[in-house]
């Protein structure tokens, strides 16, 4: 087993998401070395310089544009490289294109480093997480996707706004696919231990069905809305990436809804999707069996079937 530098992180893909994640990571002070890699070396170099110029206002670290040989001792490798959907292109075309990019990137990572934790962010994140595990040969606990961490943050934010309460006091998860078949796990949602509907009523909201639908739809459509207005989403995912890195580096054993390959979870196997899981220094320790209603379980199975269908088509 190679000796890793536990203060070293790599970001592969320096577009909107990679650059914003690198910036959030720099601000976090979690690492002392960061390597940026992109097919466009100029892009990686430009971002490394720009972010480095903020260092006098942050904590010392080395940030540079590098190559795969530079990440042989990186502890965390974040993959954001991937094409975005073009007008007229189907979702399946995009999946094929990004799986193609992963077939080039992941073996290059695995050739130089077999011991890191690989965090997949590029979309469709569940399919690419599954592909990355198969292509890398890494153990499953060390390859996982940001999954519905961002969707869950959006969910908590909207619930916090709706209820006039700090979103950090809201405990609720979006599970399943990071995408159209995702599920809001209402049956376990609570505000500091108070069941969500009871808390709603305390705050003067009684029309639960309408509010639940509105909030869940809003979470699901957030990315579409932001992309329509500004072309891409990156700050929210950058903060999610930073939070996941924090859980790993500090061995927090935090419960986060990351995407990992499931094993007989409500009958779901051999597909990567998001369930709350304990995250620490070795990556994913285990998933946490939150209680779900019969409908939520049925919807989760549908989400898994959707993902399985795509895997069968492209891998
Ligand atoms: P972007 O701005 O087009 O950046 C992609 C970057 O990847 C570009 O700089 C490319 O040069 C680079 N790239 C392409 N191929 C390679 C390769 N083979 N090796 C190295 N670099 C390469 O896209 P953006 O940054 O906006 O999005 C990146 C990915 O993140 C997309 O798949 C998004 O859909 C996805 N997102 C995932 C989110 C999540 O919650 N998981 C949230 C937002 C976006």
UniProtKB/TrEMBL annotation:
Q: Where in the cell is it found?
A: Cytoplasm
Recall the taxonomic lineage recorded for the source organism: Bacteria, Bacillati, Bacillota, Clostridia, Lachnospirales
Q: How does it assemble?
A: Homotetramer.
Recorded family membership: Belongs to the LDH/MDH superfamily. LDH family.
| Residues involved in beta-D-fructose 1,6-bisphosphate binding | 156, 171
Which amino acid positions bind substrate, per UniProt?
85, 91, 123-126, 151-154, 233
Mention any one GO cellular component term assigned to this protein in its UniProt record: cytoplasm
SUPFAM superfamilies in the record: LDH C-terminal domain-like, NAD(P)-binding Rossmann-fold domains
What's its top-level EC category?
oxidoreductase
Q: What is this protein called?
A: L-lactate dehydrogenase
Q: In which pathway does it act?
A: Fermentation; pyruvate fermentation to lactate; (S)-lactate from pyruvate: step 1/1
Its gene is ldh
Record-annotated Lactate/malate dehydrogenase C-terminal domain positions:
148-314
- Lineage, top-rank taxon, reads Bacteria
Q: What does this protein do?
A: Catalyzes the conversion of lactate to pyruvate.
Q: What is its main location?
A: cytoplasm
State the organism of origin.
Butyrivibrio fibrisolvens
């Amino acid at each position: 087993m190679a000796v890793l530098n536990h203060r070293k992180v790599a970001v592969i893909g320096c577009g909107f998401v990679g650059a914003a994640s690198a910036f959030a990571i720099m601000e976090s002070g979690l690492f002392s070395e960061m390597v940026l890699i992109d097919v466009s070396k100029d892009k990686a170099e430009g971002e490394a310089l720009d972010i480095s110029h903020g260092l006098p206002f942050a904590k010392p670290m080395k940030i540079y544009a590098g190559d795969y040989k530079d990440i042989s001792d990186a502890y965390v490798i974040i993959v954001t490289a991937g094409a975005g959907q073009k007008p007229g292109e189907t979702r399946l075309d995009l999946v094929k294109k990004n799986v193609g990019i992963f077939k080039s990137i992941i073996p290059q990572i695995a050739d130089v480093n077999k011991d890191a934790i690989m965090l997949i962010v590029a979309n469709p994140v569940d399919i690419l997480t599954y592909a990355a595990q198969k292509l890398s040969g890494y153990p499953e606990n060390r390859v996982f996707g940001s999954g519905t961490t961002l969707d869950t943050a959006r969910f908590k934010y909207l619930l916090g706004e709706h209820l006039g309460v700090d979103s950090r006091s809201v405990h609720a998860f979006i599970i399943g696919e990071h995408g159209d078949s995702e599920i809001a796990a209402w049956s376990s949602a609570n505000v500091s231990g108070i069941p969500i509907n009871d808390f709603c009523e305390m705050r003067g909201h009684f029309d639960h069905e309408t509010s639940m639908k509105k909030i869940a739809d809003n979470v699901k459509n957030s990315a579409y809305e932001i992309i329509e207005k500004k072309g891409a989403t990156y700050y929210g995912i950058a903060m999610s990436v930073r939070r996941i890195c924090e859980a790993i580096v500090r061995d927090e054993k935090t419960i986060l809804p990351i995407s990992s390959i499931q094993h007989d979870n409500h009958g779901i196997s051999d597909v990567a999707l998001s369930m709350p899981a304990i995250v620490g220094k070795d990556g994913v320790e285990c998933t946490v069996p939150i209680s779900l209603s019969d409908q939520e379980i049925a919807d989760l199975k549908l989400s898994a079937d959707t993902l399985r269908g795509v895997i069968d088509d492209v891998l």
